[in-house]
Amino acid sequence: MQVLANIIFLSSFYVSFAVGLALVFGVMRTINFAHGEFYMLGGYALWLLSGVLSNTIPDGATFIVAMLVGAGVVGILGMLVQLTLFERLKEQPFSIFMATLGLSYVLQVVVVKTIGPMGRSVPAIFPGFIMFEGAILPIQRIVVLGFTALMMAGLWYFLMRTDLGRAVRATAQNKTGAMLQGISMGKIALTTMFVGSALAAISGTLMGSVLMIGPFMGAEALWRAFIIIIVGGIGSLSGTVVAALLFGLIDTLMTTFGAGKFAAMVDAIIMLLVLSFMPNGLLGSRE
Amino acid sequence: MTILQFITSTPKRFVYALIGTIIATPLLVALPHALTSYWQSVLVIFALNTIMVMGYRVITTMGGWSFSHVATAGLGAYTTAILMTLETPWSFWATLFLGAGISGLFALIIAYPVLRTRHYYFFLSTFAAGEALRQAYIQFKGITGGSFGISFIPRPEGFWGIDFNTTTGFYYLVLAIALIIWLLLYRFDLSRVGRTIKAVAANEELSESIGINTWGHRTLPFVLGSVIAGFAGALSANFNGAINPLDFGSILMFKLVAAAIVGGVSTFFGPILGLLYLTALEEIFRAFAEWVPLLWGASVIAVLMIWSGGLEMAVLKLLALLRPILFNRAKNSSAKNIG
Question: How many CB pairs under 8 A join A and B?
Answer without folding.
Answer: 115
